[in-house]
Write a structure and sequence with these properties.
2% strand
């Protein structure tokens, strides 16, 4: 054998070489698999990051839109409150203009403005205290106007075609009619509920004492939830049907001749010395009312009297004629007619009193 020949390798060495190559291949495969796994993981992470970024961008867009909407809403609220303030100022100016027509328009505008403020308080963002003050202020302005306007009886000649407290056929003017309508609007049960819900206080009440509300339409008004003074107020021929009164209500010495009181609740009210002659009292509730010295004859309909007055005779309600009653001077209370009763100096008997059976 020559020296350049390679000696055959033993079988053991060849086996070892094959195993080494096999291990090298497996190592490479593991490396490839690891790289593939890392690639998949990074791709998944990148997808998650992309999704998060997209979500964040969406949330940012929503936030920006929300802030924009808040700005618009705030601007709209400010604009609406400014508009309401302008309307309120215009209404007060019209009421104080000295013109009956201007005052009438001002009353309507003030009433509607006040109701709008109360009903839209949550939309306009105006505070409950501000809305309450607006409501209370409007109530005082309108009531004050009614209590002090159209006192023509102070200069009206006797037998002239005018009327005054307790006498003459009432002919309400347009301004007092519109003012009374706004009182009805501001004191209805819906407004009571809304104003009470503000939890900003109790309205300070209204004073209509000595005012002329004759022949006005005030049905269903809830006077009982606030303090109200109607001492000596002319309510002859007024529609006060189904009104509510309470211990907060002072109607002493008021003129209620020929008024429509059917279904009204006077429990706790002060009717001392009031003139009820010719009134329709069908279904009215006087239980618990102070009614000493009130004139109560003739009356029409069947009411609920306090126990001691249960024997007061009344006429059938079907015989009640309000127009004829208002035109009947026997029910007037004027110091110069010779038929007055009550606070005047007339000589008429005036009818039955709730306490003595004599005149007022």
């Amino acid at each position: 054998m020559s020296t350049g020949d390679t000696s055959p390798q033993p079988p053991t060495v060849e086996k070892d070489n094959l195993e080494t190559k096999k291990d090298n291949l497996e190592t490479k495969n593991d490396e490839l698999e690891t790289k593939a796994t890392y690639g998949t993981l990074w791709a998944a992470r990148a997808q998650v990051v992309g999704t998060v970024i997209a979500a964040l961008a969406f949330l940012v867009a929503i936030y920006v839109a929300y802030q924009g909407q808040l700005t618009i809403r705030t601007n709209n609220q400010n604009a609406e409150r400014q508009s309401q303030d302008s309307q309120q100022a215009a209404a007060v100016t019209a009421i104080e203009s000295g013109s009956a027509q201007g005052a009438a328009l001002g009353m309507v505008l003030l009433g509607e403005n006040t109701v709008d403020r109360v009903m839209r308080q949550s939309q306009t963002g105006e505070s409950a205290t501000e809305v309450y003050n607006d409501y209370n202020g409007a109530l005082q302005i309108i009531a004050g106007y009614l209590a002090n306007v159209n006192k023509s009886y102070e200069t009206c000649p006797i037998n002239a075609p005018c009327f005054g407290l307790g006498w003459g056929p009432p002919t309400p003017a347009i301004d007092t009619t519109d003012a009374a309508n706004q009182i009805e609007l501001l004191l209805n049960n819906k407004m009571e509920s809304e104003v009470t819900a503000l939890k900003a206080g109790q309205p300070s009440g209204i004073t209509l004492s000595g005012g002329e509300l004759a022949a006005q339409q005030l049905p269903n008004v809830n006077f009982g939830w606030i303090l109200d003074s109607l001492v000596g107020t002319d309510l002859r021929g007024a529609n006060l049907s189904f009104t509510q009164w309470s211990q907060n209500s002072d109607l002493s010495n008021s003129y209620l001749q020929c008024s429509d009181l059917q279904g009204a609740v006077f429990q706790g009210a002060n009717l001392t010395g009031a003139d009820l002659r010719g009134a329709n009292i069908q279904g009215a509730d006087f239980r618990g009312a102070k009614i000493e010295g009130a004139l109560v004859a003739p009356l029409y309909g069947i009411p609920k009297w306090p126990g001691p007055l249960g024997n007061i005779a009344t006429l059938p309600v079907k015989e009640w004629n309000q127009s004829a009653c208002l035109a009947n001077s026997r029910f007037w209370d004027h110091p110069n007619t010779g038929t007055g009763t009550g606070t005047g100096t007339g000589t008429g008997s005036g009818g039955q009193s709730a306490s003595t059976g004599n005149g007022r």
